[in-house]
Fold:
Amino acid sequence: DSSIVPDHVQLPNVDDVDQYDNQVRMPMWMESLDTPFKWFAESWDALCNNGWNKALPRRRWSDWANCLLRLVIGMGFLWESRFFRTLGVELLDDSTDAEESQQRIFKNAPLINWLNENDPVTARDVNKTNKQLEADGQNVRQFILKNIIEPYKEELEKQIKNWDENDYLLNFIKFSKDKLSSNSDLKENLKACFGGRLNNNSNNIDEAVNYSLDCRKRFGEDADYYSLLKRVSRRYLVVSPGPELLVVLSSLSAGRPGAQTPLHVLRKKLSCLGLEPSRAILVEELEKIGLCQSSHDADDGITVNSGFKLDEFIEFNNQWNNPNN
Structure:
């Protein structure tokens, strides 16, 4: 709740957290990948810098920060589930070598299917696909932990010492394929990881994804304006961004208050997050909230406006604090 931020609280600056950079670091093999984690790091830096902590009212800044956290939690769990599911599929494929398998794992693709709101609900539904992705991914994750990492821990630790940090994943794929090739029972157990239902672990993941991305309240005083998904029944869950979600995403893609960004830049940022709506769908959504105006011959060169301008907020703030002027 944004109301818990008192007026005297200083909003953070990215420089304040530099001391933690060496404590938690992304694996080197992930650094070049487009992931929700990379998107979050860039978006959080933009929110804490570039004038946003001055351009936004404190409660709005808190709402935007909460929006980023919800997105990275939900999309991050989906990315992790897909990573492990794809890893499991590649470990079972004897026709590919480790390099080919790694390239397939690295291939960027949307995590959630964002279709036009006029398409049938059955086609737009992401509930079923999310649950299966989470179930498969978490099953493979547990399989790798219990059947490869734990039983071969000493051997793995010795080999890791000689691995280049950039090639950790590549070498782990080689190591795992080697163990599976000599153990047919192990391979059958891995095959059984796919197509099952949610278990306790993956059900927790599913609840976290839904709580992060689903609309919590559609109407009223506490309406959720920052959600990505909307539940249309107990069975179906569809992409239907809240009215403020694209304001946040487009504004932070622009970098600073009042700046503009080309449509193709925004689409690249969304792709990094795991969202790839068509150009037509994205432009329609942006037009609804007044951030761009379509042009038939502009292609991705359409300019998207930022949601806030620093000078406008300063003028508003001065008038608010000095009502007699």
